[in-house]
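hey m, so remember when u said the tokens were messed up on ur end? i reran from scratch. heres the input so u can diff it against urs
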Amino acid sequence: MFIYHFLRLSAFALSKLFFHLDIKDRKLIPRQGGFVLVSNHTSFLDPIILGAACPRVLNFAARDTLFRNRLFAALLRKVCAFPIKRWSADLSAVRESVRRLKAGAGLVVFPEGTRSLESEMQDITYGFVLLSYRAGAPIVPAWISGSKKAWGKGDKMIKLAKIKVIFGQPVYVHSSRSYSEIAQDVYKQMQQLKLKICI
């Protein structure tokens, strides 16, 4: 965990210096136990920004192609990332996600599945609700603003930009409601976070 905490502190310091990182409502992150952190995703910087903003260790599912290089794969594992096959039902990644959540870890999920070219969220899936239900872990919505301006999809260089992160109230999954209903509630709260952070 030394490497994770060292890189997190480095990312926090650099984000403050170059992006004037502003973090709101960090106190809403559960102090213990697993949780699913659900956020919008418009930049390569988003996982780094979330890791810097969150007071707890975060786990990430990263596309399996990133693990082809042994050295980079080793680094990814040091920062609590694990491989997932994109555009397919990767059951092993689902099991690993649930295992980590049950072990008390925080898990980042980008429900759009990939970086978006738009500031508005695209169609979201509700797989994160399934993970929450199976692991008995709450869902914490979040919104990142400004990361697209700093390093958006297709950009070749990182630019200076103000980046903000805001966290929302945890959502607890109950079997009496459908996954799609819960996903829509989380989506609505994320839209409210977006409006709040832009004020």
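this time it looks ok to me. The radius of gyration is 16 Å. if urs says something different then somethings off w ur setup not the seq
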